[in-house]
Amino acid sequence: MAEVVGHRKGKSVKFIHNDLMQGAEFFWQVCAAKEKAGNRYGIAWDYMACLMFVAFSFEACMNVIGAMKVKDFNERAKFYDKFDEVTAAIGVKADWSKRPYSSMKHAKEFRDTVAHGKPDYEKIDEKGDPRELEEKGSLAGEWQKMIEHTQVRECYEDQDQIWKEWLTTGKINLMDTLSSFDVTIERTEKPKPV
């Protein structure tokens, strides 16, 4: 029997931003369906997951555009430094004080709050009407104020708007941002010596 030798040659590219954007889409659909049905069971975790996926995918999108458009791009640079490089390279003027970019700032701040979670100590020493003082008691953390339905929806929608703007302004074909695998395998039989 002749010996068979295989040779695999080609290239592949794997982009995580697509998976992260799909994760945001998945959790947004869960949130929207629960909200519509009046189902509050676990919805805070769904909002958290959606917002985390938005924050992660936004930075991953920055890394994709940076790798394509910024010479010697460093994906480990600080967030806002990377952002400035990417938007300058594709000619986008961003205003962090209004949508859609204020939504991405919100998502990043939420991500940082959760990623660097720490105890929140509060000293309480108040006098007043006992009923009013009782109403003030809460174990809700600051992060919980960041996952309100409308805010999460805006973050989800704005990230998609920014991505489309970046592709258009940067003259980047969407197909070039999709994971791909282009490999051929050649099989060669070595003749058996006679």
Rg of Cα set? 24 Å
Query: Which structural class best describes the helix and strand composition?
Result: mainly alpha
- Helix segment tally: 6
Report the uncertain regions: none
Per CATH, the architecture is Up-down Bundle
On the 0 to 100 scale, the average pLDDT is 92
H and E order:
EHHHHHHE
- Which strand order spans the largest sheet, edge to edge or round the barrel? 1-2
Number of domains: 1
Through-space gap between termini: 11 Å
Jot down its keywords.
194 residues; mainly alpha; Four Helix Bundle (Hemerythrin (Met), subunit A); two-stranded antiparallel sheet; 6 helices; 54% helix
List the helices and strands and how they pair.
Blueprint: E1 3-13, H1 16-37, H2 43-69, H3 79-90, H4 101-115, H5 130-136, H6 149-169, E2 180-190
Helix pairs in contact: 1-2, 1-6, 2-3, 2-4, 2-6, 4-6
